[in-house]
Amino acid sequence: MNKKYHFLFLLSLFCLFTENIAWSTLPDNKINGKYYLSQSPWSGAITTAINDVNALDTQVTLVIDCDANLTYSRTVDKEVVMEFISGSKITIPDTRILTINGSIIAGAYQIFIDNTSNGYGVQGDAQIKNVLPEWWGAARNIVTDSSAAITMAVKFAQGGSSSRKSILFADGSYYINSPIPLAGSASIEIKGTAYYNSRIVANAVIESVFDMSDNSGYFQYAFTNIVINGNSKADYGIYGETVSYLKSNKIVVYGALKAGISIGTGFCTNFINCEILNNGNASNFANGLEFRGGSYHNAVNIIACKLVNNTGFGVLAASTCLFNVLGCTIEGNDACGIGICAGKSVNITDNYFELNGRTGFTTSADQDQVTVQSHIFFNGAVGYTSLGAGYSVNGVKVSGNYFTNDGYSTPDCFIYAAGLYNAQIENNHQSAVDTGQELYTKRNWPTYSYRNVSLNGQKFYYAPDVTINDSVQIEGLNYISSKYPATVKVIATGQDGSANMSFEINVLIKADLTIGGYAYSNQINTSMSTAPTITNGSLTLNNLPAGDWTFVYTASSVKIE
Questions:
Q1: Is the peptide bond preceding residue 411 cis, with omega within 30 degrees of 0?
Q2: Phi-psi region of 395 (alpha: psi -120 to 50; beta: other; left: phi over 0)
Q3: For 360-418, what is each residue's pLDDT tens digit?
Q4: Which of 115, 324, 351, 458 has a 20 to 30 Å separation from 78 between CA atoms?
């Protein structure tokens, strides 16, 4: 080979080798239909490359295969796909903005170094579905604080106007030292790869893991397949002020010190197949799921969830409307299973209750201070610390529930109510091993009026007690399944343990009937309209034989003196 051709051959090899090294002119950087930016020789290479591919005004892929510095703010057009090779990153200095309206192709590795003071150096309406926190440097280890990286990912995902974007967390645990804010600027979904696989863990004393307190309430939020661990350091797993269109599906929230999830105001709020458990500790009263008082909550659905082993209430809800708890396991919550305060249109149906109210809670030191231990608590006041009827719980259905304590003596009753109005309590089933539990305890001062509370079709192995401590109409305690001889009591007591009653009683069984010391033996269909003084505070049916019996009690008025 002569020298001329030898020189041309070497030159060709050099050009072939160097076309993947630097950005010079657009045609020189095109390989297999893609444009490559590799080993940027000057800081402005990424700026020039974006300008050049934008000018093509067609679908194009720009491959980033180096570290580049954005010297001037630039916008990547919608037609441009930015593909990052692992190890390649773009640095955004303070006061510069990289606006991405096209697509991003990258794995779970860092591609941006955002040095802006507000952490919002990467913006835009990117044409992607999932945003990865790793793009900003999040890592799955206890050494790395991923708070800032996750926050930048959230800002980017909420910054566009296109359809909802998701923050996708990979398998493993991300540790944070600061709350992750979800601002009310756009809809967003927080999701993991699969149930129990992706975890966010508080690694410092913080108020909450996810903070929705700046949400205006008009955007759709979702949590899916994510585990939130307060780690006994965060007060809340999820905290929000005004939250609407919130959908949580297959999430786990535990280890918070004040509440697993706490919502201030909300509507169209749904929790499906979630586990909210083990919140609080021996020193901290913590509810599993709470809807705070002071505003309102409507169209709330809690479906097929586990609300277990929280030191406060499993669910505590105030100022609610259209509130449904369906098909849940509500177990081992120390204060109470479900507490509804000042609620309207409440439906608690087909749930399993066990070992709630072990410690119970004590109302404020007023004239009606009591310690309440129950599975369900209704109160006509906004909070649970003071009993009242000013905001009565209205339009309630408690149906088809099963409750047990596995032989333990607590709680005292299935339902404890103060300020209940228009309620149907029907077809609930008590465990065969439980004794000493009342079906229903109703307590408050006689200045409050209660109407239209019915107890129908309950199924019990041990006949339950029903306690009334105020003016009330109750009818229809039906279909008591007494596996063993038992005593049914309807108790009406005033502060001094006595009461005057005007009532009618129908006892559709053959039994001994005792009313305030008056004995009526072997009565059938007995109707009484007198008003005996019940000095012992109870109406008692003694010596019920085994079998299924119907007991109908109608109190046209109960006057407490």
A1: yes
A2: left
A3: 999 886 656 788 999 999 998 888 988 888 888 999 999 999 988 765 666 778 898 88
A4: 115
Tokens of 406: 């596995």
DSSP secondary structure string for all residues of 383-448: SSSS---TT-EEEEEEES-EEE-TT----SEEEEEESEEEEEEES-EE-TT--S-EEEEEE--TTS
| Dihedral over Cα of 353, 358, 359, 362: its sign | positive
Helices (H), 122-182: 147-158
d(CA 523, CA 506): 9
CB 94 within 8 A of CB 102: no
Question: Strand 34-38 vs strand 30-31: parallel, antiparallel, or unpaired?
Answer: antiparallel
Q: For residue 349, give both structure tokens.
A: 């149906």
Task: Tell me the DSSP string of 66-112.
Answer: SEEE--S-EEE-TTEEEEEPTT-EEEE-TT--EEE-SEEE--SS--E
Give the H or E element holding residue 518: strand 518-523
At 446-484, the pLDDT tens digits run 444 455 677 766 665 555 556 654 444 444 444 344 444
50 three-state secondary structure? helix
- pTM for the full predicted model: 0.84
- Tokens 């109908």 label which residue? 552
For residue 10, give the 3-state DSSP assignment. Answer: helix
Whether residue 558 contacts residue 492, with contact meaning beta carbons closer than 8 Å, is answered with yes
Residue 137's region, left for phi above 0, alpha for psi from -120 to 50, else beta, is: left
Q: Pick left, alpha or beta for residue 38 (phi over 0 → left; psi -120 to 50 → alpha; otherwise beta).
A: beta
- State both tokens at 4: 């001329």
User: Using CA atoms, how far apart are residues 72 and 42, in angstroms rounded to an integer?
Assistant: 13
CA distance linking residue 402 with residue 330, whole number of Å: 10
Q: Which amino acid is at 303?
A: I
Q: Write out the E strands in 185-335.
A: 188-192, 198-202, 206-212, 221-224, 227-229, 234-249, 252-254, 259-272, 275-277, 287-291, 297-303, 306-308, 313-318, 320-326, 329-331
Which pair of tokens denotes residue 259? 């509440």
Any idea which residue has 């609300």 for tokens?
A: 307
